[in-house]
Amino acid sequence: LVIDGHTGLLAEPADPESLAKKIQALLHAPVGRERMAEAGREHVAAEFGRAINTQRLVRCFGVEAGPIFNS
Predict the structure, then answer these.
(1) Taking the C-alpha atoms of 25, 26, 31 and 36 in order, what is their torsion angle to the nearest 10 degrees?
(2) pLDDT exceeds 60 at position 50
(3) Model-level pTM?
């Protein structure tokens, strides 16, 4: 879900210093923080919204939405 530097920041696993540096970077860059937050919202809406997930499920199961989805 996180695209490093675009929708958020990734820290090295099991590395508290890396995490602290990323948090400090966010604390000191409010404009960049807001930009990444907005990019994150847009990314989630585009990639994981109801419409796209429905399309993916239909393709996965190879069926069209039937009466159960239309009621």
Answers:
(1) 120
(2) yes
(3) 0.71
